[in-house]
What does this fold into?
Amino acid sequence: MAGAATWTTSLHAQKLAMPVIGYLCAESPELFASRLKAFHQGLGEAGFVEGRNVAILYQWAEGRYTQLPALAANLVARNVDVVVAPGGAEVALAVKAAGASNAIVFEMGGDPVQLGVVDSLRRPGGNITGVSSLSVDVSPKRLELMHELLPTAAKLAVVANPTSPTANSQLQKLRSAAETLGVHLQVLNASTEKEFEPIFSTAAQEASGLVFTSDPYFAFRSRGLAELAMKYRVPAITQSRDFPAAGGLMSYGGDFAQSHRRAGMYVGRILKGEKPSDLPVQLVTKVEFIINVKAAKLLGREFSPSLVSGADEVIE
Amino acid sequence: MQFLTSFVLVPAMIVRERFRGLFQKYLLVLFMAVAIPLAINGIVEAWFGYRDQRARLDQLLGVQATSAAAEIHDFIYGITNQLGWLVQVPWSDEPDERRRTEALRLFRQAPAIVSLALLDNRGLERLYVSRIGLNRIESRTDRSADPAVIGARSGQVWFSDVSYHRGSEPRLTVAVVGNRPSVGVVIAEVNLKLIWDVISAIKVGKTGFAFVLDRPGRLIAHPDISLVLRGAEEATSKPFRAIRDAIGPAGSGFATSRDVHGHEVAAVAAPVAGPDWTVVVEQPLAEAYAPIYAVLWRTVALLAGGTILAALLAYALAHRMTEPIRVLEEGTERIGAGSFDHRISIETGDEFQRLANSFNKMAAELALGQEHQERIAKLKRFLAPQVADLVDRAGDDSVLDGRRAEVVVIFCDLRGFTAFSAALAPEEVMNVLSEYYEVLGKAITQFEATLISFSGDGLMVLVNAPVPVEEPALRAVDLAVEMQKSVQRLIAGWRSRGYQVGFGIGLASGAATVGRIGYASRFDYTAIGSVVNLAARLCASAADREILIDSEVAECVRGKRFLVELGDRQIKGFDEAIPVFGISFDTPIADGKLRRPG
It folds into this structure.
């Protein structure tokens, strides 16, 4: 009896001694599974395995981005060792706004300096660092690719999420790019799933191509977007490779597997005692271009040789 | 005996005093004999081991550095080679869609290339493609004054200084020209962060690694990407530059310096030609020297073990060498103390054993000597000294064994001594007896007769036993005469003092059983037989100044000494009367009828 009691106590103590990661996610575990896997891989490379030498406390917003500040505050209050804010600027900003004294590691597509999350890439300052996938920066490239696919189109539609902190900067860059490319830009807004279908129907009627800005809300709903794109026979490009994989036409964006893995490695290093301020913000080195030839056929389009040769992956 | 004891004991004491010194000397000498060569061997081995290990480390780190530099070189030149494919065909004035396709394909193949620009032979930008920014086709911007273009034209391949994108990511601009001016120039921006794949794969020993510095000494590649991303900062690059600067010219071996954490490292550098970078491989000194330490520890352990072994060996050998001396010492002491039966047991098969054997022999001889002395002493008690010596010289006392022998037995005693002794003080009696035996003893010794026993004033003497003599009867008669003469001179003195004492002797010859009788160390030589009784009876019947002999003795001395026939006498213990003769001691050489003295 006494032995059992001691064992229970020591197990309890062991659990207490184990560092705890607070993982705040705007989406559901199902949608985030591939990202979480990459994160665990990075954590493992730094020597941490969940349940063995690190515990992870998850907070899932299930797509309700407005819940993020409350969940962030919840994690901060739980006094976890590191708060992980993956999957977008909204999450990072929510955690930072919660006034956490805990270390914070973000993973986002935007520019953390521009968003005011860090002081500089080299010296992030404070208790926060992370990885940027460059997806936000490459929004104009998506417009360029769509323009290359539809060189004769005079007007292209851009979809933005007005609730996104990066929406304005992306639109600004896109407008400037449209000018360079000599196309007219039509801006469409969507911040809920309900707004997706009207966008596609509008695009089907008015414009010949849809360019999605970088936004996690869009990225995690690639399947729905791909289905709508096919339904309305609209050529579309998003940031996530999930889109062409689900039957969409093409995607151009940072390699999320790399960004989440690096975030995991940074979390591991912080758990080992390094200070976030000593860890420069990393930029993803790989921006991938994926095309779906089958989707193109269904849409009655054809990729130019330069597009095909420039594609990192061609889905046939 | 006393002399012998002191002879042995004194050296024994000296030996004991020297014993400890000798043991220590042996111990020291033997220990040194083993330990010194061992130590020299150990030190020499450690020294050569150290040198070999250092040379090996030099070689190892040198090879590592060269191979690391080769890998970095391959990384860079892999990119320039691929860029070279873009400058193969001369430019026309038309837009070249094929080149764009090739450029985009190159993007896929060379992930480190961030952007690239293709310039025609006039230095006009014909194509610009980027992973992040918008592409430019036929912008025809004049870039002929671009240092990349000028540099590439003068050397086919040109590398810029490393720049840090947004102050963090190290980037390099590479420009390549074709083999003729008409093919133009390609300028590419390379993200050096991707060297990480190469640099992190380079392992030096267990924890050693490689890093790359550009010409001014800024960190551009390191397994820890976070350091590279801060490479533009002086504080980040300084410790790495210090390591590079500590390394001398190539071939001078590895240098030791301190890393970021202040740990000592062994480092070797190798240049990367082209961009003019330096690859440094470093290994923690503790790890690099681990084999050296292992060699040293092994040597120390061997030395310690060897020393202990040497000590044990020296102790054992010294003990082995001094132990016989101790045994010798102990043995001599015991022999000195009189234990002649003690034997020193040393089975070393060397001089010690020989010495021990000598001691044993000496002890045996001493024992023999002592035995001899004791035997002589015993023999002398009843034998004449000359006889005793004779017996002793013969080396065996079998002459004393019991046997039948023809002997002449002489008995003599004083007449009237009982009354005489009663009247005297005991001291006087003893003095008288001393004088008496003195003269008798002298006579017995002179005639080599055997004294058998004393009792009071009488004594028994044997002639012809145990040692046979020539003419025993004659000798016995002469002895008796001498005894009578000597004692009568004494008696004359005693008479003058008023004591009435006489002296008579009886002799008889015949066969008797002679031999030793007694027990333990107390034994006598004696004769048993009727001849002894006869001699005793004759003595008893002899008057003062009378020497009575039996017929046998008389027959032997007849014609040689003056015999007096006294006729047959009835002797107690004998059934018939026997003929008795007398010897006149006043006229030694005469023959004729005995005249009984008045």
